[in-house]
Amino acid sequence: MADNKIESVLKEHRVFEPPRQFVEDAAIKPADVEALYSAAEADHEGFWADQARKHLDWHQDFSTTLDDTNAPFFKWFTDGKINVSYNCLDRHLSAKADKTAIIFEADDGNVEHISYADLHARVCRFANALKAQGLAKGDRAVIYLPNVPEATVAMLACARIGAIHSVVFGGFSAPSLRDRIDDAEAKMLITADGNYRGGKLIPLKEVADKALSEGCESIESVVVLKRSGADVEMRDGRDIWWHDVVDGQPADCEPEWVDAEHPLFILYTSGSTGKPKGIQHASAGYLLGAVTTCRWVFDLGDDDVFWCTADVGWITGHTYITYGPTACGATQVMFEGVPTYPEPDRFWKMVDTHQVTIFYTAPTAIRALMKHGDEYPQRHALDSLRVLGTVGEPINPEAWMWYRQVIGKERCPIVDTWWQTETGAHMITPIASYTPTTPGSVTHALPGIEADILDESGERVTDAGAGGVLVIKKPWPYMLRTIWGDPDRYKETYFGMYDAHTYVAGDSAQRDEKGYFRILGRIDDVVNVSGHRLGTMEVESALVAHEAVAEAAVVSRPHDVKGEAIVAFIILKDGEGDEQLASDLRNWVSEQLGAIAKPEEIRFADGLPKTRSGKIMRRLLRTVARGDEVTQDVSTLENPQILDQLQAKGT
Ligand code: WT7
Questions:
Q1: How many CA atoms lie within 13 Å of 643's alpha carbon, on the beta-carbon side?
Q2: Reported confidence tier of residue 156, pLDDT bands at 50, 70, 90
Q3: Do 460 and 569 fall within a single domain?
Q4: pLDDT (tens digit, 9 = 90+) per residue, 21-60?
């Protein structure tokens, strides 16, 4: 995060109470929240056991709440049996069969309403089709689909039969898709011929074919959804159309009752190394977090129209599209397109059309739309809105205030929700009907979540304004269970710094005078571009795989819309870099990893600043990338003359 942003956040003292009318209308009252906090404080495990019995339907009740005998490999609700899709669908059928589960708006504006009965039938048909294709409990299916209802159907169908899904965001490249398929040893790939986003064709099947052209030996079948109508190659004996596999399948499918701990999904995310981590979530605990946070944080109820603008390819889409709103039996909007197409009022127009009451998006979208000017939101009434949420990266107070005033008309509480792929659902966030909010602050931890800030030696950091390592001191039901196929990395990454009960999030944080948390940024080599997490090492590995590149170092610098932007320092094998090569390298990274990883700027140099032991001085590169004055100690620099060159080469 930019130093100037940290400063502006630190100077932020405005406090906004939850509006009185909002609290009066809310399902969850301040007294209820107080009761949750006291219950959680009195008995952490008992509290979660009560919540699990209250919010989930169990096929068989559990007898042990938390098994921590093999910490940090925690187990929750062991010997309980459950099915996640049953909880998201079947249990609503008696009272809400005709209620709209999904209002889907396609890129071209076409709208489709899907009821709970209809969603249930579609999931059952597809689940039967998966079984007919040979997918069984515990098998992995990779889902590479656009943000359309079939993605939700595919995920819930996997859950129904106990297969483990791994959704890969449609913007990822062929090599990234291949790596994930190989790491998960997936038996099936579920994709589409393509789709339109912002009026542009995304050729998913073509990318998938490229991915499958090498490795991917575990793949036995590829199910292809017809979406764009683009001409695609269907390989005999491997590829089969979605509409053909579901044809003739019964609209009923007995759920597979799995253990509470049965893996529900794997979702890959970036870490400090070049290799993405397969974050593995468990069935019951994960779903519990999806439900409780929807209820508490957003006050999600039966009359709401919930809209999370994320893509199902990210954890936000998993928890707040596929699982949370459906498990709550709510109505939600799902959107295939982008906020600025055909015009920058698309979101606001959709809020009015579908009468959205709870709206959840990312700071990068808010900043981008804010730049287009107030006239776009002002074209629309926006009077159905009652809660606004943000997620993915720190939100600057300016964007927060714009969100509050121009979108929420000072009537809607803003919940700035801190969490991660690993945490499964919200962790540190305001509760809409309860928490006084401050721009740029994620406020406090939820009931049952023990967040704290520690210094390097493990002492608590309590002084206002002092920074430290953000940790969670007790296991919680919706935490990740391991890294797929790499338990050592799980232990080392998340529990290596202190002890086997102290989860290290990878962020630094501080408290303000009220004791509220403020997230400062990552403590590892992870950057956050438009709310998407990227490892600098991943981008570096992609760059050095280019034939012209000898060495690369990647850092980020603040960006007023993306939050952070990537700057790559490149040492060529020979010759000088020019505009053309810079553009080639940017495209190369995009092909290797996906468009989100495309560097904002490429700088060529003859060498990188290194210590005498050969370590790249990244902090120094960050300073240079930001165009700031170098005040760091450069006495350990092995090649001090390189500094002048790096600065001079700035464009
Ligand atoms: C990282 C997790 C959580 C779903 C989307 C991102 C940053 C996330 C906030 C927030 C400040 C935030 C953190 C975190 N982050 N939410 N409200 N304020 N920072 O999930 O890709 O796993 O990334 O995003 O740095 O560690 P993710």
A1: 22
A2: very high
A3: no
A4: 999 999 999 999 999 999 999 999 999 999 999 999 999 9
Query: Which residue type occupies 277?
Result: K
Q: Does 544 show up as a binding residue in the annotation? A: yes
> What is the rounded CA–CA span in Å between residue 335 and residue 339?
10
Q: Is 248 annotated as a binding residue?
A: no
Candidates 19, 1, 6, 5; CA nearest to 437 is: 19
Q: Tell me what ipTM this predicted complex has.
A: 0.99
Decide whether any atom of ligand 1 lies within 6 Å of the 309 Cβ: no
The CATH number for 620's domain is 3.30.300.30
β partners of residue 269: 277
- Among the atoms of ligand 1, which is closest to the Cα of residue 532? 21
Ligand 1 touching residue 450 (CB < 6 A): no
Q: Which residue is associated with the tokens 């529990």?
A: 495
For residue 417, give the 3-state DSSP assignment: strand
> CB of 268 within 8 A of CB of 279?
yes
Q: Cα-flanking dihedrals φ and ψ of residue 212, to 5°?
A: -75, -10
Please name the residue that has the structure tokens 């809020």. Answer: 351
| The overall pTM is greater than 0.80 | yes
Asked if 475 and 66 touch (Cβ cutoff 8 Å), the reply is yes
Ligand 1 neighbour 563 (Cβ under 6 A): no
CA proximity to 361, closest of 307, 400, 321, 413: 307
Quote the distance between the C-alpha of residue 540 and its chain's center. Answer: 23
Beta carbon of 419 within 6 Å of any ligand 1 atom: yes
Residue 8 maps to a domain: no
416, 400 in Cβ contact below 8 A? yes
Say which residues have a Cβ less than 8 Å from residue 465's Cβ, sequence separation at least 6: 10, 510, 511, 512
Cis peptide bond upstream of 342, omega within 30 = yes
Please give the structure tokens belonging to residue 423: 């945490």
77 DSSP assignment: S
For 614, the domain range is: 530-647
CATH number of the domain at 274, please: 3.40.50.12780
Number of independent structural domains in the chain: 2
- Residue 336 burial (CB count, 10 A): 21
Q: Which of 601, 608, 595, 553 is nearest to 579 (CA)?
A: 601
> Is 496 found in the same domain as 550?
no
Does 563 lie in the same domain as 492?
no
Atom of ligand 1 nearest to the CA of 417: 17
